[in-house]
Known about the structure:
Elements: H1 2-5, H2 14-21, H3 31-44, H4 50-56, H5 67-75
Helix pairs in contact: 2-5
Amino acid sequence: TIEGLGKVASGLHPIQQRMVQYNASQCGFCTPGQVMNMYGLLQRNPKPTKQEIEDHFDANICRCTGYRSILDTMKSFAGDVPPSSTGRPTGPIDIEDLTTKLCKTSGQPCTGKCGP
């Protein structure tokens, strides 16, 4: 159970600590299920890939749409995603993080010089 995994008084489990570090608990309704899901995955595979983590969380529901911070937390345990200087996972950019328009031809940042 989540209570057996860790408590504030006796010490939080590393997954619970990261949920706090990544501010991944909004209303707290889904937090126990998210933490236990990751705990189960790490018991079976101590170094899952980022894709394995995403696939493993397909069925977990967050009613306040905190998926971004929850998945960022869980991906920080991935074996194929080195931590950045902020401790957050690095790797492919999520589409929501793109601020630069990309060229449809090259896939590189648009310079506005495409011709007919």
